[in-house]
Design a protein that fits this description.
Elements (H helix, E strand, L loop, with lengths): L2 E10 L8 E3 L9 H15 L3 E6 L8 H11 L2 H17 L7 E10 L2 E9 L1 E7 L5 E7 L7 E5 H4 L9 E4 L5 H11 L1 E5 L1 H19 L3 H21 L3 E2 H8 L6 H9 L6 E2 L3 H5 L3 E6 L2 E6 L7 E4 L4 E4 L4 H11 L1
Helix pairs in contact: 2-3, 3-5
Length: 333
């Protein structure tokens, strides 16, 4: 993860209504292993957070961040860009009584053939450590577990000939909608894709595909595991689910089959989908077999298409699969 440029500024803002003060650094940070480690840990924490995905708003007067960022990419003045952006963030903080200051990190880095800009508002936590002279002393360190305001911009996607509508992502923020809104306005991000909704649609398409192909139970479970493993891997890496790549994992003998099914049925899915980990976690197959009876369904269907009556220990199935219904009807003839 080569870091091209990085810098940290401090916004001093207390929750007492006093004006915020920007303490700006006047030079880039030198390359160091400490900075590499910080960015790696920051990305790991960021990837695990619930996020919103989108793209830059066209109103560059109201939302000037993209103009400043484009100017930096053209002329290379990273310090000027970061100071301008940090000052803008300070101004927005002053209008938000819920927000407090902190150290603002800007890092331009390269990963997997793409350039990214990471922005994070960092806070410290107090701890206790042992010094080289074996004394016990108080220590201060960055508390990445409290990473509530952060964003990542795929610069390569944004500057490409056909940018997507998901080249920006930012954390939803623990402080509620007002906190998330002011940080979104700082970036000038317009929401493009609903990650939970897109993930739910993808899983619905997969369930429909498995049913239409009438796979054996073992095959269906294997394909479900392939999908979930791939999607979780992408989520941990902070990368989108690519339908074309996923299709090959779902069926390696017919690598285009699932992709073509999605397109022909017109589910309205983008070619790349930001995975939502919470939605993925709910998508697991429940399976039981006894006395000639075999039942299997995705866990997210429990409570809707499948109900469990605990008092009488029975399952109630709504919307019986067409193939099963036809077999039952033929059996009764």
């Amino acid at each position: 993860m080569p870091i091209q440029r990085s810098i940290v500024h401090l916004i001093d803002k207390q929750p007492d209504g006093q004006p915020a003060v920007l303490h700006a650094r006047d030079s880039e940070l030198a390359a160091s292993q400490a900075m590499e480690d910080l960015l790696a840990r920051l990305n790991d924490t960021y990837n695990a957070k619930p996020k919103v995905w989108g793209f830059f708003n066209n109103d560059s007067v109201t939302y000037p961040f993209s103009t400043w960022l484009g100017r930096y990419l053209d002329d290379g003045d990273f310090v000027a860009f970061s100071r301008q952006a940090a000052d803008h963030l300070k101004t927005l903080m002053e209008g938000n009584n819920l927000s407090v200051g902190g150290h603002v990190l800007f890092a331009h880095y390269r990963q997997d053939e793409s350039d990214y800009l990471a922005i994070a508002l960092l806070h410290h936590s107090e701890g206790v450590g042992v010094t080289e002279s074996l004394d016990v002393a108080s220590t201060r360190q960055l508390d990445l577990a409290q990473l509530h305001l952060a964003a990542r911009i795929d610069l390569s996607d944004w500057r490409s000939d056909a940018p997507s509508k998901q080249y920006i992502s930012f954390t939803k923020g623990k402080g509620g909608k007002r906190i998330a809104d002011y940080f979104r306005d700082f970036i000038g991000c317009e929401e493009g894709l609903d990650a939970p909704g897109e993930t739910r649609t993808l899983l619905k398409a997969f369930s429909d595909y498995v049913e239409s192909e009438d796979f054996a139970e073992e095959q269906a479970r294997e394909k479900t595991d392939n999908l979930i493993d791939y999607a979780n891997t992408q989520a941990r890496a902070g990368q989108p689910i690519t339908l074309d790549e996923l299709s090959g994992l779902v069926d390696d003998e017919r690598p285009k089959a699932f992709y073509d099914y999605i397109r022909n049925k017109d589910y309205g899915l983008a070619a790349e989908i930001p995975p939502d980990k919470r939605t993925l976690h709910q998508f697991r197959r429940l399976t039981g077999r006894a006395g000639g009876l075999s039942i299997s369904f995705e866990s997210h269907l429990l409570g809707s298409q499948v109900e469990y009556d605990e008092t009488q220990d029975r399952l109630i199935i709504h919307q019986v699969p067409t193939s099963l219904r036809d077999q039952i009807k033929r059996r009764g003839e």
